[in-house]
Amino acid sequence: MDKEILPKRNQTGQRKRDSRAKGIPEVMQHRFRWTDVLAQIGLIVWAVICLFPVYWMFTFSLKTNNEIFGENVMGLPREWVWSNYTRALNVGHMGQYFLNSIIVTVVTIAITLIAAVMATYAITRLHWKGRKRMNKFFMLGLTIPIHAAIVPLYTTFSRIGMLNTRWALIISYSAFSLSMAILIATGFMGDIPYDLDEAAFLDGCGVWGIFFRVIAPLMMPAVSTVGIYTFLQSWNELMFATVFISKEAYKTLPVGIQSLSGQYTTEWGPIGAALALATLPTLIAYLFLSRQIQDSFIAGAVKG
């Protein structure tokens, strides 16, 4: 019996000696564990706070006005009114607005990415007179508020007959996204060693060959970051879309959702359904590209 107990005591004593050897008191070990528990609880509470608007919007889109305003504000719908989505798509023309937003956003992202990466390559990798001034000129765009450009842009588009077209929004969104896109791309391109350019040049690549074969593949983290930023800017923009577009055929989702509100009475269920449809692409983009966005921010933070 003593022989069986002795090893256990020795094991206990060994654990205590190991703890002392590591210099960590037992009280501190318990404190670390409680800190981890509190941190996990805090993260769970924060996750609930962040996800609650999504839950509320989805349940809001499946309720009637009576449930939304008093009878059942926070709970699940007593009767799941899926017809709200049908009314939003058919009566509210959400399908057409959704298509317009997709076309405008995709073309804007493509133009911004191509222009930003090429401009950054010319400014940071090529040596020519005035490149620093050109970089300052692009960065100047960060200081111009969007509201200050409404009147000049409206006058210009009106004179060239571009109002009530998708190109009025595409050009405006691309122009106002370009400065931030170049700023982001410059940080990433500065981390690419110049030795790669020299090695590609010795292998027979010219300026375009170095750009497409060396620089462009290494800029994928920056491309994903700029793409997400441009997507959010274009998809949710309301001011330009309201001023430049008045025809139903070219309205985007933010303007279309705004027009669902009636003058005297409003059915809020279809509006909630339209909001859910408008938010869905943003959620999908985050689910599929969240890892790339996190990696891109980490890569941009470790410069040197």
Describe the protein.
It is a single chain. This protein is mainly alpha-helical and 304 residues long. It has 2 domains: 2-60, no CATH class; 93-301, MetI-like fold. The chain has 14 helices and no strands. The protein has helices at residues 2-22, 26-60, 65-71, 83-90, 94-124, 131-140, 150-159, 166-189, 194-202, 207-218, 220-235, 239-244, 253-259, 268-301. Helix 9 (194-202) packs across helix 10 (207-218). The longest helix has 35 residues, at 26-60. It is globular and about 70 Å long. It starts with a helix and ends with a helix. Mean pLDDT is 80; it is low at 1-10 and 300-304.
Largest sheet properties: none
Computed over alpha carbons, the radius of gyration is: 28 Å
Average pLDDT across residues?
80
The helix content, as a percent range, equals: over 70%
Low-confidence sequence ranges: 1-10, 300-304
How far apart the termini lie comes to: 65 Å
Helix-strand blueprint:
Blueprint: H1 2-22, H2 26-60, H3 65-71, H4 83-90, H5 94-124, H6 131-140, H7 150-159, H8 166-189, H9 194-202, H10 207-218, H11 220-235, H12 239-244, H13 253-259, H14 268-301
Helix pairs in contact: 2-14, 4-14, 5-6, 5-8, 5-11, 5-13, 8-11, 9-10, 11-14
Characteristic key phrases:
304 residues; mainly alpha; disordered N terminus; 2 domains; 14 helices; globular; 0% strand; 76% helix; MetI-like fold; disordered C terminus; single chain
Please outline what is shown here.
The chain has 304 residues and is mainly α. It is built from 14 helices and no strands.
